[in-house]
Amino acid sequence: MMNYKDKKYHVVTYGCQMNVHESEKITGILQSLGMTSIDKPELADVVVFNTCCIREGAEDRAFSNISALKKYKAKNPEMVIVVCGCMPQQKQGKYDFKTKLPFVDIVIGTHNINMLGSYLQQISENRSRIFEILEQPVDSCEITNVVRDDKINAYVNIIYGCNKFCTYCIVPYVRGRERSRAYEDIEAEVKELVNKGYRYITLLGQNVNSYGKDLNNGMDFATLLSKLSQIEGEFKLKFMTSHPIDFNKNVIKVMKQQPKVAKCLHLPVQSGNDEILFKMNRHYTIKHYYSLIKTTKRQVKNVSLSTDIIVGFPNESEQAFEDTIKLLKKVKFDQVFAFMYSKRTGTPACTFPDQIEESVKNRRLNKLLREQKFINKHLLNYCVGKTYNCLIIVKNGVTMGLTDGGREIYLPNDSGVMENHFANVKVEGIRNHKLSGVIK
Ligand code: 5AD
Ligand code: SF4
């Protein structure tokens, strides 16, 4: 029987912030068993792969990394390999862990990560493999012992799951329906993090704007944000991800009014063409999206905008793709996360006719990234003369202000006395493609 005390663990994370935060919870579980972290998976006693199935590329990478451990496991049969997260949770996943990876010891899904400690105990007593994929989330799956790596940014879940069923997306199938966390639990966690000195707290959910719909107590996302920003201390709240159909004027108002709400917004648009948006089941038009952006820009001074785009969705014509480019030029996002459409078995879009060839998707993605790079260069000029409330950081001996949107503004070195505090920074110019400024 393996006693985990003083053994070494290694956690590998794929995918989004949701998974990054889940890995912090997994780390908490492993450390509470007395384990310590090691850099190299091949030297670890327990290796956990926290997988993502949102695109085929992430799945292929995870599968090949897991497979690469086979030879180390052969040398060290005591090694315990765990695969968890979205990949095993799929009903019709590409990879069958049971037959294809016989050396993996524990395979669990998204709904029972909180049980990882007891599965590890179980396997140390009796080496038979554990396969446990729960169909439904369990009510009491809160994990409180979170070990965070970052000392400035912290994630806090506010809602799990998704009810939207965009036709390309696997998430609703592997993460279940929306479940909001109780306000008291969220508030207690945010207070604790503020007391620990975290400066940015990101409220996490597949669709944060749905917060409270299932609680039936009158609570909604705007109210949550407004209440949390009353907490005392030096910090700012960020949130992701928002859906254009639920993101609304009330949230914009809180963003405008509350200094503790960061002036940045991640609002995935996915496509700039109404027909494609309809086929994606996104429930909004580009006109609606523009009106949200317009109101946000008008109300929230110097707001930083980011978005997600999918290129090559089935039936996307050259014209439809050009509509997306047009949208980027018009909105001028600070950051664009662009992906080639990836067929996900079990989702409606997977069986749509007129799938786009890989080479076309590739070409469109490259064009879009080129256009965005160009837009970004121009955005730097746009920042000159503006004042941003920044977190002052010192990176490799260089002092800079970090805007809410993550832009770095180089500062004179004597500004370092303000390290780890918020201050207003005025951008004065551009040097070597970087912004430079002074504390106001
Ligand atoms: N193919 C490509 N991108 C996808 N996304 C979600 N599903 C797919 C898919 N099947 C993207 C969307 C989403 C982001 C998290 O991942 O843009 O906003
Ligand atoms: Fe996927 Fe759409 Fe839900 Fe986002 S809102 S997780 S893209 S189904």
In summary, what is this structure?
This protein is α/β, with parallel strands linked by helices. The protein has helices at residues 17-32, 56-67, 70-75, 86-89, 97-100, 116-125, 171-175, 183-196, 221-228, 249-257, 274-279, 286-299, 318-331, 358-383, and strands spanning 8-13, 36-37, 46-51, 80-85, 106-108, 130-132, 153-157, 159-160, 179-180, 200-204, 236-240, 264-266, 304-311, 335-340, 387-395, 398-402, 408-410, 422-431, 434-439.
Q: What do these coordinates show?
A:
- The protein starts with 7 loop residues before the first strand and ends with a strand.
- The longest helix has 26 residues.
- It folds into three domains: 125 residues, Rossmann fold (3-Layer(aba) Sandwich), CATH 3.40.50.12160; 231 residues, pyruvate-formate lyase- activating enzyme (Alpha-Beta Horseshoe), CATH 3.80.30.20; 53 residues.
- It is globular, with a radius of gyration of 23 Å.
- It is α/β, with parallel strands linked by helices and 440 residues long.
- The chain contains 14 helices and 19 strands.
- Helix 1 links the parallel strand 1 and strand 2.
- Helix 10 runs parallel beside helix 12.
- The strands form five sheets. The protein has a six-stranded parallel β-sheet with strand order 2-1-3-4-5-6, with helices on both faces.
- Helices cover 34% and strands 22% of the residues.
- 5'-deoxyadenosine binds next to strand 13.
Shape: globular
Secondary-structure content class: alpha/beta
Strand content: 15-25%
What do the pLDDT scores average to? Answer: 95
The CATH topology of the largest domain comes to pyruvate-formate lyase- activating enzyme
Give, in spatial order, the strands making up the sheet with the most strands: 2-1-3-4-5-6
- Largest sheet properties: 6 strands, parallel
CATH C-level name of the largest domain: Alpha Beta
Annotated CATH homologous superfamily of the largest domain: tm_1862 like domain
Low-confidence stretches: none
CATH-level-2 architecture of the largest domain: Alpha-Beta Horseshoe
State the end-to-end CA separation.
Answer: 62 Å
Number of helices: 14
* Ligand set: 5'-deoxyadenosine, iron/sulfur cluster
Helical fraction equals 25-40%
Over all CA atoms, what is the radius of gyration?
23 Å
Domain count: the total is 3
